[in-house]
Design brief:
Length: 89
């Protein structure tokens, strides 16, 4: 599972061919051992939990980088390595 971005202690990852459980474009976010899954189109929390302040930052980042995230999703579901995406720093 490649890390596609890192900012403010948040790691953003995308699994290869990860369409079984959530079935829609999504990312996996980790912060200090806590993990959450967010949909890319809506920025909605699908599973897990991270601190509310970090959640707000992640949702804002998803909105800013939605086009790049969706392009990476297409690569990942076809088993290709997604590109790195700029963080917020």
């Amino acid at each position: 599972m490649p890390t596609i971005s890192m900012f403010y202690g948040v790691l953003v990852r995308m699994f290869f061919r990860d369409v079984e459980k959530h079935k829609l474009p999504h990312i996996h976010v980790e912060y200090q051992g806590q993990v959450a899954v967010y949909s890319i189109p809506e920025g909605e929390l699908l599973a897990g939990k991270i601190p509310p302040q970090k959640q707000k930052i992640v949702v804002a980042w998803i909105e800013l980088r939605k086009e790049d995230l969706l392009a990476d999703w297409e690569l990942a579901v076809h088993g290709k390595i997604p590109f790195k995406i700029k963080g917020l720093e």
